[in-house]
Design a protein that fits this description.
single chain, about 170 residues, mainly beta, seven-stranded antiparallel beta sheet, four-stranded mixed beta sheet, 2 helices, about 10% helix, globular
């Protein structure tokens, strides 16, 4: 992001042309369309303009409400993604839609549609490393090397959100 983009609050992704309407996310390797840890924001230009973008130091999120996808960056380096399998209710964005792309498990399609239960998730992914339960949701956590996968299961709505991110620190380039 250039200084003048920041100063005048211009969208640095405005000129990006969408060439991939339905992204794929490998939830075991934290890859979005084959791009992973430390990829720059510009590497995701194929997704088109974002509705929200990181600040001048490149830390923050690219938010794609029509794709149900949010990409997180630290110092202009990709560190994780949030996949909304149901329209995110906490966002006041009428364009928000559920994720329609492909979910992958180490390159192969994996079936984790919105609303599946904890038992159905366990049948697909196995036993979670940890499980956190509160009044509103259950969060299952899986760890694959330096990739952390968290699945948010609402009560009684089933699977709603998938968070996948890299564990570790990112330094400025």
């Amino acid at each position: 992001m250039g200084f003048f983009d920041f100063l005048f609050k211009r969208n640095p992704t405005a000129e990006w042309r969408e060439t991939i309407a339905l992204p794929n996310v490998d939830i075991f390797r934290c890859l979005v369309n084959g791009k992973g840890f430390r990829a720059s924001m510009a590497d995701f230009s194929e997704l088109g303009p974002a509705a929200r973008w990181p600040g001048k130091n490149g830390s923050g999120s690219l938010w794609y409400p029509s794709k149900g996808l949010e990409l997180d960056f630290e110092f202009d380096q990709f560190v994780g993604a949030t996949i909304f399998l149901k329209p995110p209710s906490h966002r006041e964005d009428p364009a928000a839609r559920p994720f329609q792309g492909a979910l992958l498990r180490s390159g192969a399609p994996v079936a984790l549609p919105a609303g599946v239960s904890e038992a159905e998730i366990a049948a697909v992914l196995g036993r979670a490393k940890s499980r956190d339960d509160d009044e509103e949701e259950t969060t299952l956590q899986y760890v694959f090397g330096n990739v952390v996968l968290e699945l948010e299961i609402s009560k009684p709505g089933g699977l709603e959100v998938i968070n996948v991110f890299f564990e570790g620190e990112v330094s400025p380039r």
